[in-house]
Amino acid sequence: MATVQQLSTKHVLGIKYLTEADIRLIFETAQSFKEVINRPIKKVPSLRDVTVANLFFENSTRTRISFELAEKRLSADVVNFSASSSSVKKGETLLDTVNNILAMKVDMVVMRHPAPGAHHFLAKHIDANIINAGDGTHEHPTQALLDAFSMQEKVGDLAGKHIAIFGDILHSRVALSNIFCLNKLGAKVRVCGPPTLIPKHIRSLGVDVSHDVWDTLQWCDVANILRIQLERQDIKYFPSLREYGQYFGINRALLDSLGKPIVVMHPGPINRGVEIASDVADSGHSIILQQVENGVAVRMAVLYLLAAAR
Amino acid sequence: MDLLIRNAHIVAPGEDLHGEEKDLLIRDGYIAAIGENLPSAPGLEELSYKGQCASIGWVDIGAQVGDPGLEHRETLHTAGAAAAAGGFTAVAALPNTQPVIDDKSGVQYISKNAYGKLVQFLPIGAITQGCKGLDITEMIDMQRAGAVAFSDGEKPLQHAGVMLRALEYVKAFGGLVINQPLDKLVSHGGQVHEGRVSTAMGLAGVPAIAEEIMVRRDLHLLEYAESRLHLANLSTAGAVQMVREAKSRGLQVTASVSIMNLVYDETAVADFDSNFKVMPPLRRAEDRAALLAGVKDGTIDIISAHHVPLEEEVKKLEFSYADFGVTGLETLYALSRTYLSDWLDAETLVQALAYNPRKLFGLPVPHIAVGQPAELTIFHPDMEWVYERGRVRSRSLNSPVLGQRLKGRPLGVINNNQFFSALA
């Protein structure tokens, strides 16, 4: 049971900047919201009169919809903005864009941006609460929160549990946020993938490294499989998707050979047949769709807690 | 110009007056008298801050002066004012202007300018046309027109064959090649030092080997060509060690370090503050210690301000979109005193700022003696001041210490019968 009833921070810029107590408070709050969204009437008035702007400078489907649903179920007023339909293409700077939106009296900003640290930059210059919905290869805190929340539902308290993260660690904000979050909750974390997709200094964050998929599956209680981020790879880090799928992808035969059940997760969108085979994604091992459901509850919790402290 | 400098602690390693406290009388631009309790005279201006020091004028070996073509960042006038305020009487201008300084007329444009005769500009000609790294420039022509050295400045020379030919070609006139070592295929898009901090920030890193591979390459090429090379702005412990070994084997190599890399380490960028985004990047505490040790044992000859003025449109941005570089001419000395006072004595500093740069470029060395022309920097090691926005003489404000209280201050420079007071 958490002892604080308020987050230690005004913004959620990354898991790095949250305390363990913050994370547990978010989970506890998310648990109650999960009950709410399974009621016939899914809406509560907690964020009435709060205006939230969803600013997406990078493509997103599930995260954007998940945030929007969370905001609407809390009765917030919501405005959406995406880079493709905006003046960013006309050369406006981030600060100008955001200041213009804030001039219309927005209280909270949910932002996705391709530049690592873009939210820090913004936090220095504007007054609204900022929630990071992904900043380049840095962090994606609400994804890590919903991942850990979903893991806990399946395997109980994460202290001492073995969690493996597979795939493109180098270009993944989900991996970094997961590592920070799982470490704070006491789990043991291992990353696994081709050496060219694992940052050389990743061990300094307190994780193990392996390049052996079978061995890592054998070791872990939960396998979090990341998407190959082809759009972030401007040079070749591995020779072909075919070879990647063959040597680093996870398929049913591999899972069956383990002789033990494990939980399989994926933050989506999945590349079927590359990092994860369809017979795994659609299997009983997989909790991919529960993750999506929990995403709404966790984001409601984050929005609620930040608004409550305003 | 007449001026009486009272009780100045003289920092002039190797000279008779070194370490003594004297009054210096400057008359008509010459040192007219040196002594104790020299008489005041009506109308004779006096500079008498207790604890002040005097040395020969300082020289920076590579600043971006913005002129021609980038005058929104800096002009020769503002660069000169910034240099004078920072205690410099000469500044070598990097060729990365628009157009690039890669021919005789470009060199002449820089060398004919001076800041009120106080600050001399020393043109560095490009090694390759347009600093594109491919075809070597008319270096003999540029040298005759006043170029003091050849470098592609902020653009490390990637092509080993071009580097080799440049090192060989300058031997025709005893010239000097300067390279800031970085293999760009290895550093590939790196924003900060690759290590613990870059990993936690999710930023692409510049591994130390990106620099070290090129230092090793350049030293091999130098040995083969039997020429002269200056490696500018080293940042890694490995690079310092390679230069140390090369010097002990008798290669004609010298090295410099940017004040930023001496003062800060990788942790300075952890908050995504683009005013710590520099190239070479701020590296590990161990690298910083090795750089300081390199300055102390003479492996690193020169400390540079590595002055890179930038407008806020390219600096006040998301970290990975911001350009590399910070201003440094006005704050080098104060940074050294504020952060390195336990490490760096006045003698080492003056050696690295005044004597070694002149040796590098083959410039005459002024002496502090009666009858000599006065080319002096007066500075105070303990005076506190704030580098305030209103006081900035550079045209750009991209400094990590803007608005910060600092210790140690240049008081003024004297050169060519003129006196510039930094306190005015």
Secondary structure elements and pairings:
The complex is a heterodimer of chains A (310) and B (424).
Chain A lengths: L19 H17 L14 E6 L5 H12 L3 E6 L11 H9 L5 E6 L4 H8 L3 E7 L5 H15 L6 E5 L6 H12 L3 E5 L15 E3 L2 H7 L2 E4 L15 H8 L3 H5 L6 E3 L12 H4 L6 H21 L2
Chain B lengths: L2 E8 L10 E7 L2 E6 L9 E3 L5 E4 L1 E6 L12 H10 L2 E6 L10 H8 L2 E2 L3 E7 L13 H6 L4 E3 L8 H10 L7 E3 L4 H4 L4 E2 L2 H6 L3 E2 L1 H18 L3 E3 L5 H12 L4 E6 H5 L21 H12 L5 E3 L7 H4 L16 H9 L5 H16 L14 E11 L18 E11 L2 E4 L3
Parallel strand pairs in B: 1-4, 1-5, 6-7, 7-9, 9-10, 10-11, 11-14, 12-13, 14-15, 15-16
Antiparallel strand pairs in B: 1-2, 2-3, 5-17, 8-9, 17-18, 18-19
Helix pairs in contact in B: 4-7, 7-8, 8-10
> What's the CATH C level of the largest domain in chain A?
Alpha Beta
Give the % helix of chain B. 25-40%
- Radius of gyration of chain A, taken over Cα atoms and rounded to an integer in Å: 19 Å
Looking at the structure, what is the overall shape of chain B?
globular
For the biggest sheet of chain B, the summary is: 9 strands, mixed
Radius of gyration of chain B: 21 Å
Could you tell me the strand content of chain B as a percent range? 15-25%
Number of strands of chain A: 9
* CATH fold group of the largest domain in chain A: Rossmann fold
Distance between the termini of chain B: 16 Å
The termini of chain A sit apart by 23 Å
Report strand % of chain A.
5-15%
Q: How do the SSEs of chain A run, as a string of H and E? A: HEHEHEHEHEHEEHEHHEHH
Main sheet makeup of chain A: 5 strands, parallel
- Our count of domains of chain B comes out at 2
Overall number of domains of chain A: 2
> What is the count of DSSP helices of chain A, taking H or I runs of 4+ residues?
11
Q: If interface size is counted as residues with C-beta under 8 Å from the partner's C-beta, which chains form the largest one?
A: A-B, 26 and 23 residues
